[in-house]
Amino acid sequence: MNLKQMVGIEAAKYVKDGMIVGLGTGSTAYYLVEEIGRRIKEEGLNITGVTTSKATEQQALNLGIPLKSIDEVSHVDLTIDGADEISSDFQGIKGGGAALLFEKIVASYSDKNIWIVDESKMVDDLGKFPLPVEVIPYGSQQLLKLFKEKNLSPILRLNKENEILKTDSGNYIIDLHLKKIDKEQTHDLATWLNSLAGVVEHGLFLNIVNLVIVGKGTEPETLEVSR
Ligand SMILES: O=C(CO)[C@H](O)[C@H](O)COP(=O)(O)O
Question: Where is the active site (predicted)?
Fold first, then answer.
C-alpha cells in the first residue's frame, strides 16, 4: 500500500453514517473516495458527498456515492482533502490540482476539515510549492504584469497540451514561485491577493484544517490542530 492510499483509507474511518461529507480532489483524495465507495457498497454506509471538482464528481458517480451540490446542503459535517504543503503552524497551500476554488468553498462551510498527505508535504515554511492564484481570463495579463513587477515570479499554468489551463469554472491559474513565504507575512499576502480585481481565489488555506493525517513508514500519523 502506498502512503497516499494509507492516509486515504485512514481518513475514511472518520466518515460516519448520516454525514454530509466534502470530497477533496487529487491523487490522495482519490483513495479516500475509493474507500468511501467501498464502504457504501460493502458496509451499507449511508452518506451524502459534496464534491470539489468535476474529476471527483465523476469518480464518486462511478462508485455510486450519493451526491449533492454545496448549494443543496444545509451544512457539511466533514471535508477530507489533500494538500500541496502544510507548514509547521498548520497553514496550507492547495490548488496543485487546480481545484482550489471549489475546495476552499466546501472547506469554508465544513464543520471539520481533515487533510491527508504523505510526509513530503510537511514543511517548515510554505512557498517552495508554487502558490496558485485563480484569476478570471479578463485582465489576467495585467495581473501577470503586476505579479512580475512585485517579483512574485508568476507563471500562467498550462495543461498537458501546452494550452492555457482552464479550471472547472473556466478561469486561469497563475502560479507564484515564491520559494518561501515567511510565517509573519502569510496573512498579509492572502489579504493582498484577495484585494486584487480579477483574482477569484488563492491557494493559501489559512486556519482551516482541524486534523492532519500524514503517511509515513508503515503507520499513518494523526496530528490534531488546536485553534
Ligand atoms: O489542492 C488540490 C487540488 O486542487 C490537491 O488537494 C493537492 O494538489 C494535493 O494533491 P495530491 O494529493 O495529488 O498531491
Answer: 103
Atom of ligand 1 nearest to the CA of 4: 12
Burial degree of 71 (CB within 10 A; 0-12, 13-18, 19+): exposed
Please give the DSSP secondary-structure letter assigned to residue 182. -
Q: How far is the CA of 5 from the centre of ligand 1 (A)?
A: 14
What is the domain class of 3-123+206-224 according to CATH?
A: alpha beta
Q: pLDDT tens, 139-185?
A: 999 999 999 999 999 999 999 999 999 999 999 999 999 999 999 99
CATH 3.40.50.1360 domain span(s) along the chain? 3-123+206-224
Strands 85-86 and 92-93: antiparallel
Q: Do residues 32 and 90 lie in contact, with contact meaning Cβ atoms separated by under 8 Å?
A: no
Segments of the chain assigned E as strands: 20-23, 48-51, 76-81, 85-86, 92-93, 110-118, 131-135, 154-156, 172-176, 199-202, 204-205, 211-216, 219-224
Single out the residue of 129, 142, 135 nearest to residue 179, CA to CA: 129
Q: Is the separation of the CB atoms in 129 and 26 below 8 Å?
A: no
Is 48 assigned to a binding site? no
